[in-house]
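Quiz preparation item.
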C-alpha cells in the first residue's frame, strides 16, 4: 500500500455466521467506508483501539468514535492528527446503581467496576439506534471492544457487520470460546483442561479470567455479559492486538472455531498510535525527570515496576515489594498508583517510611502516571515487574525487556502462562491479587534475570525483533491491517 505509515519516530530511534442482507460480494470497493468505533472505557482497551483507529483513518476510512463525555479527552491526540476523517459521537453515560455519578472509566472504580460499567453501557442501545436512524452517512460496519458484545445484536438489527476488537490476545479469546459455552461444566471443576488448545496444561479455577470467575447465574447484569461474550464469536470479523509470531497456534485455533478467515492480527498497536509520550496521561508532570535519571544508569540495569492503572497494593504488599526491591540490589523505577485519602490512611499505595531516602540514587519512586512506553524502550531498562495486563505485556515485548510476572486477576494468569511457559521471555516472581511475597525470595527473583547472561534475556530480545518485523511494511501485522481495510472497502452500508 502506497500510504504505508512508518513506526513511531521515537521508537525507531531507540464461513460466515450471519450474512447481512444488504451486503453484496459484488459491490465495487468503497474508497472511504464509514465505520463506528466503540472503545471500552478502560486504559488498556481504549488506548489500543484508538491506535487502531488512527491507522484506519490513515488508510482512508471515515470514522465515528463513540465515547461518553469524561472519555472525550482520550481522543485529543487522535482528533488533532486526523481532524477531517474522525468525528466523536458523545453520548451521556447511562446510570447504574453501582456506578457513582460522574464516573465513566474503569480506572476510577478499579476492576470491580467492570461489571456495572459493561451493564450501564448496554443502555446505549436505543440512543445508538436513534443516531443510526438520523445519520446521513451510512455505516458499513461497527468495530467494538469484546466487552461490548451486545453491539453484535445492534449490528444484526441494523443489517451491517460487527467486528470484535480484542485488546487482548488470541489465547484469551480461545479460552473464552470454551468457558462461556460450557459455564456450568467449567464452574464445577477445580482444574480446567482446554483440550481444544495446543499443549494446554490444566488451569486452576482461580486462575481463569476474572470476568468468568465472578459470573453469577440468573443475575441480570452477568447474564447480559455472558450473552455478549458468546455473541463475540458470531461477529463478522475479529481484530486482535497481537502478532502472529507470538500466538500462531492460538490464532489458528480461534480461526478454526469461528469458521472463517476474517481474523486479523494487527499488533503491537502501541507502535502505531499518533503519540507515544503521553499515552494514558491525564495531565501529569513532564517526563524529563524520569528520562534524565535513566540516562545516568548503565544499559539494561534498571527494573521498571508497574501494576497498571487499576491495581492498588495494600500495606503488606507495599512493604514486601519495597523490601524485595531493596534486597535485590537492582536499580529500579517504581510507579505507585495513588489511592483515595481513605485508602492511603489504610495503607493502600503507601510507600514505607524512609524507603525513598534509603534508595536515593539507586531507585526512583513515581507517584501517579509515568511514560511507560518511553521507559520500557530506554536502553537502561532491562526488566519489567508487571501484573501482565495485555497492553503492558506487548509494551514490554516491544521494549525487549525480561518480564517479571506477578499476575493478579483478569486475563493476567493466561498472559503469564503464554510468556513464561510458551515463549520463555518471562519469569514468575509471585502470583495472586492478595499475595504477599517473601521479600528475600522476591529480591532474588528480581536480581537473577537482570544479571544472567543469556536464556530469558536472549529470548526477550528475539521476540522484540519478531514484534518489530510484524509491524514493518511487509510484516504479518501490516499485511493483516491492509487485508482488513480491503475487506471493509468491499462492504456495502445502510
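Solution:
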Amino acid at each position: 500500500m502506497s500510504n504505508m505509515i512508518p513506526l513511531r519516530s521515537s521508537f525507531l530511534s531507540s464461513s460466515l455466521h450471519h450474512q447481512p442482507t444488504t451486503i453484496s460480494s459484488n459491490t465495487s470497493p468503497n474508497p472511504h467506508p464509514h465505520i463506528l468505533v466503540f472503545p471500552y472505557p478502560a486504559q488498556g482497551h481504549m488506548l489500543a483501539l484508538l491506535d487502531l483507529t488512527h491507522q484506519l483513518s490513515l488508510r482512508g476510512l471515515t470514522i465515528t468514535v463513540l465515547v461518553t463525555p469524561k472519555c472525550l479527552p482520550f481522543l485529543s491526540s487522535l482528533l488533532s492528527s486526523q481532524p477531517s476523517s474522525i468525528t466523536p459521537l458523545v453520548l451521556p453515560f447511562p446510570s447504574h446503581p453501582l456506578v457513582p455519578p460522574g464516573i465513566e472509566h474503569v480506572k476510577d472504580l478499579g476492576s470491580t467496576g467492570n461489571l456495572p460499567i459493561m451493564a450501564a453501557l448496554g443502555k446505549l442501545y436505543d440512543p445508538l439506534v436513534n443516531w443510526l436512524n438520523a445519520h446521513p452517512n451510512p455505516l458499513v460496519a461497527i468495530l467494538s471492544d469484546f466487552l461490548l458484545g451486545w453491539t453484535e445484536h445492534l449490528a444484526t438489527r441494523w443489517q451491517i457487520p460487527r467486528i470484535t476488537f480484542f485488546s487482548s490476545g488470541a489465547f484469551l479469546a480461545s479460552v473464552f470460546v470454551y468457558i462461556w459455552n460450557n459455564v456450568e461444566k467449567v464452574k464445577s471443576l477445580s482444574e480446567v483442561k482446554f483440550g481444544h488448545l495446543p499443549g494446554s496444561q490444566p488451569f486452576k479455577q482461580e486462575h481463569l479470567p476474572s470476568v468468568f470467575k465472578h459470573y453469577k447465574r440468573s443475575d441480570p447484569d452477568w447474564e447480559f455479559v455472558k450473552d455478549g461474550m458468546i455473541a463475540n464469536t458470531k461477529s463478522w470479523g475479529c481484530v486482535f492486538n497481537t502478532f502472529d509470531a507470538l500466538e500462531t497456534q492460538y490464532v489458528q485455533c480461534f480461526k478454526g472455531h469461528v469458521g472463517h478467515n476474517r481474523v486479523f492480527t494487527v499488533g503491537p498497536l502501541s507502535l502505531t498510535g499518533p503519540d507515544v509520550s503521553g499515552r494514558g496521561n491525564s495531565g501529569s508532570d513532564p517526563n524529563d525527570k524520569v528520562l534524565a535519571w535513566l540516562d545516568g544508569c548503565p544499559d539494561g540495569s534498571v527494573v521498571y515496576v508497574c501494576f497498571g492503572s487499576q491495581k492498588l497494593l495494600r500495606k503488606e504488599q507495599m512493604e514486601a515489594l519495597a523490601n524485595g526491591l531493596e534486597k535485590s540490589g537492582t536499580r529500579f523505577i517504581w510507579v505507585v498508583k495513588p489511592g483515595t485519602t481513605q485508602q492511603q490512611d489504610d495503607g493502600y499505595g503507601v510507600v514505607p517510611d524512609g524507603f525513598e531516602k534509603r534508595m536515593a540514587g539507586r531507585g526512583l519512586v513515581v507517584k501517579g502516571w509515568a511514560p511507560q512506553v518511553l521507559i520500557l524502550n530506554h536502553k537502561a531498562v532491562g526488566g519489567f515487574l508487571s501484573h501482565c495486563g495485555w497492553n503492558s505485556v506487548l509494551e514490554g515485548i516491544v521494549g525487549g525487556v525480561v518480564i517479571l510476572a506477578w499476575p493478579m486477576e483478569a486475563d493476567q494468569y493466561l498472559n503469564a502462562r503464554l510468556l513464561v511457559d510458551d515463549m520463555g521471555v518471562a519469569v514468575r516472581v509471585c502470583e495472586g491479587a492478595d499475595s504477599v511475597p517473601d521479600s528475600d525470595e522476591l529480591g532474588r527473583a528480581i536480581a537473577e534475570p537482570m544479571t544472567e547472561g543469556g536464556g530469558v534475556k536472549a529470548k526477550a530480545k528475539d521476540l522484540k525483533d519478531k514484534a518489530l518485523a510484524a509491524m514493518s511494511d511487509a510484516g504479518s501485522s501490516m499485511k493483516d491491517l491492509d487485508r482488513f481495510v480491503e475487506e471493509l472497502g468491499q462492504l456495502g452500508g445502510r
